TrEMBL record:
Transmembrane segments: none annotated. It comes from the Bacteria. SUPFAM superfamilies: FucI/AraA N-terminal and middle domains (SSF53743). This is Fucose isomerase. Keywords: Carbohydrate metabolism, Isomerase.
Length: 475
């Protein structure tokens, strides 16, 4: 995931019978704030229009032309209202620019004692008018937490941080490329998806037969420099001291070929057939390679769970940190708000400090433990939790999702694999929603609190149907 400084288009609204000097002050405020918040503002200068604001249709045309010239790098637009502003000017700019990016509407607060003609802003009222016009024009927009807020206020810094994350999610999901490696396991109807629905939303899937990956891996010589380098990389990544050398070699060969597949196809994420062909025909698990890719922010989901990989990508766009695909796996004793999250071992090591490479006992019971080396074993510590899931609704031809927040706990968990104990308020109601709405048994977790960001991006800018568990009291 690219971490370049985001560019944000800025529209500073103005209205002629309100104090003009407020526009110049706002422009200085935004320039100063942009340096602190680490974004690049794209906005008119005082040489372009009066004080660099947007008031007339001519101003809107100039601002729209500026935005179009920087279309490829503008992630979102910030509307700034230092006074009442001209709602038509704002709406006209966005319509003419046609950027199709998120929009944040900010309005300055008035100060008691400065409500005279020279100082009053009336931006509280102007914001309502701007939003009304944007709604009329069919332009989606995001609001600040407080109706009016100063760019110097701590709450506005939080508003911008959330907004930039929304821009990452909305923009990133419109052009994501996912690799599907192999066929889904025959017993996993749950991970079926509609490639056509994804494509309609800008999400491309590149497929490859698993035999091509395994064939290329088999052709790599034991002492090939890239194979030996991958072995070194695995050993540096996790404790692999227990892995038989022959199995470590197979893991490395597979990792090299997967790296090539990702690079050659410019993929953002992968979903891989983790069993049982890999174990039977290559003699190892792919979990370690998947974990290493996810740690590098190239998320990888098992069981060819393409929409699971998409969810992983969405969550890392929101948070800037790795995601993990997990099973809603077990109850935790008799606590109705706690459960066990589990997988054989493909989580990014950010979730499992001190992780070690091991075999997979469950798969080994049928495939032979000697063929399952490459799984990871580690416990996730206590911390924040965002969970969620994106799916394709083939019947309705739509995208659906659910999101929510909770926490990972330090409760005792004597088992193997990648594992965690999660506490989710009203967990039983969430499980009823997951079951009634036909969501997959896989869910994605991220060590953040970003559910509101995901909901905003999914619903407002991508047009998806979203259930936000924190906001709903479903029985």
């Amino acid at each position: 995931m690219k971490t370049t400084t985001p560019s944000i288009g800025v529209i500073i609204g103005n209205r002629d019978f309100f104090p003009d000097h407020l526009v110049g002050e706002a422009r200085a405020d935004i320039e100063r704030f942009a340096r602190q918040a680490a974004f690049d503002p794209v906005m008119l200068t005082p040489d372009d229009t009066k004080l660099g604001g947007v008031e007339t249709f001519d101003d809107a045309q100039k601002c729209a032309a500026l935005f179009r010239a920087h279309r490829e790098r503008i992630a979102g637009v910030l509307v700034v209202l230092p006074n009442f502003g001209t709602e038509k000017g704002v709406a006209d700019t966005l319509k003419l620019a046609a950027l199709n990016v998120p929009v944040l509407v900010q309005a300055y607060p008035d100060t008691l004692g400065k409500l005279d003609v020279i100082h009053r802003r009336d931006a509280w009222c102007g914001k309502i008018s701007v939003c009304n016009n944007l709604r009329q024009a069919g332009i989606p927009f995001t609001l600040t937490a407080s109706h009016v807020t100063h760019p110097g206020a701590p709450s506005f810094a939080q508003d911008i941080g959330r907004f930039i994350a929304v821009c990452r999610v909305a923009g990133g999901l419109r052009k994501v490329r996912i690799g599907a490696v192999g066929a889904r396991p025959g017993a996993f109807n749950t991970v079926r998806y509609s490639e056509k629905i994804l494509e309609r939303h800008g999400i491309s899937v590149t497929t490859v037969d698993l035999s091509e990956i395994l064939g290329a891996a088999a052709k790599l010589e034991d002492r090939h420099r890239r194979v030996t380098a991958k072995i070194d990389e695995i050993n540096a990544y996790a404790d692999a001291s227990a892995v038989p050398p022959a199995r470590l070699l197979q893991m490395a060969r597979l990792g090299v070929v997967l790296d090539d597949f990702v690079a050659e196809n410019h993929l953002d994420a992968t979903a891989i057939q983790c069993w049982n062909s890999l174990q039977q025909n290559h003699g190892c698990n792919v979990c370690t390679s998947m974990s290493m890719m996810s740690e590098k922010l190239l998320p990888s989901a098992c069981e060819v769970d393409v929409t699971g990989a998409l969810t992983m990508h969405a969550m890392q766009l929101a948070s800037g940190s790795p995601s993990a695909l997990v099973d809603w796996n077990n109850n935790y004793a008799d606590d109705p708000d706690k459960c066990v999250l589990f997988h054989c071992g493909n989580w990014a090591k950010s979730f499992t400090p001190g992780v070690r490479v091991s075999s997979a006992p469950i798969l080994g019971s049928s495939l032979g433990v000697e063929n399952t080396w490459g799984a990871l074993d580690g416990r996730a510590p206590a911390g924040p939790l965002t969970y969620g899931r994106i799916t394709t609704d083939d019947t309705g031809g739509t995208m659906r999702a659910y999101v929510g927040e909770g926490e990972l706990t330090h409760d005792d968990l004597p088992t193997f694999g990648n594992r965690a104990v999660a506490r989710v308020p009203r967990l039983q109601a969430l499980m009823r929603h997951v079951c009634r709405e036909g969501f997959e048994h896989h869910v994605v977790m991220n060590a953040s609190l970003t559910a509101a960001i995901l909901e905003e991006a999914f619903t407002r800018y991508l047009g998806w149907e979203v259930y936000h568990h924190a906001k709903t009291d479903e029985s």
